[in-house]
Amino acid sequence: MIDDYYEHRIRAVDEVILIPETEPDRQYYFMSKLRELISEKEQEKGGKLTYHVETFGCQMNAKDSEKLAGILSAVGYEEVETEEADMVIYNTCTVRENANTRVYGRIGFLGTLKKKNPDMHIALCGCMMQEEEAVEKIKKSYRFVDIIFGTHNIYQLAELLYRRMNGEERVISLLKDTKLIVEDLPSELKFSFKAGVNIMYGCDNFCTYCIVPYVRGRERSRRPEDIVKECEHLVSRGVREIMLLGQNVNSYGKGLEEQVSFAKLLHMVSEVPGISRIRFMTPHPKDLSDELIEEIAVNKKVCRQVHLPLQCGSSRILQKMNRRYTKEQYLELVDKIRARIPDVSLSTDIMVGFPGETDEDNEETIDVVRKARFISAFTFIYSKRNGTPAAKMDNQLSEEEQNRHFKKLLDAVNEVATEEAQRAEGQIQEVLVEEINQKNGMLTGRLDNGLLVHFDGNADLLGSLQRVLLKECKGFYYIGEVVEKN
Prior knowledge:
With 486 residues, this protein is an alpha/beta fold. It is built from 14 helices and 19 strands. It has a six-stranded parallel sheet, sandwiched between helices. Strands 15-16-17-19-18 form a five-stranded mixed beta barrel. β10, α9 and β11 form a beta-alpha-beta unit. The two termini are 28 Å apart.
């Protein structure tokens, strides 16, 4: 059901004759017009029109998908769990080549569904659509796709869909870059009690393996007052946990008239009444300041989990990656964080098999894992990404070499993470209750450090913070017991 605030925004433009030039008023105008078209379609169909949004990729994509779903719900569609719907959107990722391959296969499946339902509309958006080669392939090989748009104009869904439903055969709207930031649009939250909030867009780091700066554009920050306002609105909807999102949140503030650091923004958000927890994703080690460490240390609302992407423990490979720190500098930062925040839990991202990586380089990474004591790590194998400098580098590793390095690293990561998780066994910690586990019927919640806990309880605890005894550590999760209801 659409939020009253957004309903008012749509109704406010019902009688507007001229299309507004400024955003997001322009999109509310098209939402209003779409409602009329969809109402007519419902009469023809004899029932509600349905939609399905499929998300590929990162938290930023997931946040974008909530906006897409919010716009579709606002104009009259009802959500369904499968692609057998009247409107299907694939919000694509392009971080690795196999992500593109997976999307192509799924698009073919949509073509089969459209033959059964010729009135079905198919839209593709997201990072993959910022690649000219991918778009050309879709235009030629998947002519049944109705709408193509990219990362820079996600907010234009209502306008693009209106154009398609109003007679345009195919709508393609792609921007190479933008300085515009458009928020304040309907959003269909996946959870009623936690939500992500974009604080910035784009990336200026240009790691040699990464396509993100090319498809997401250069860094641009939202005004802090707009971020706080969004957080206040989310709290009014029942949200208790906020995750601040950006490709590199530590460099927040670029382009703002009045310089505001990420640490200062964290403090401003924490002052919003009703927020119980604040997380953030993703920081870059080279930009993590003493000011931020201090804010985490003293601010009880900020989770004591710091995600610190390592990527590799070899200084030689880190230089080839253009990460702009060494192994020694990374470990010095870890020591500094732990000295000021003794109860901190560190998580990380690690890439294995980068061009030129030797057995010795892999051992360097394992050494960092053992010294940094990560409680969790997202580990993945390097995949050549066309359009990046790393794709042209010599000494690309064979699949066999990559898998050998990956297995050795994974064994070390699992060993260390299990040891770190076991340290909390027997403690009582606060848990945000998130869902009912479909496999065992128990409640599942998340600790301050991001790890999961399963425990018995009723559905009325969903969305609440509970004190839970961590009775048994199972490696990457716990079996617990509620000790007192909050």
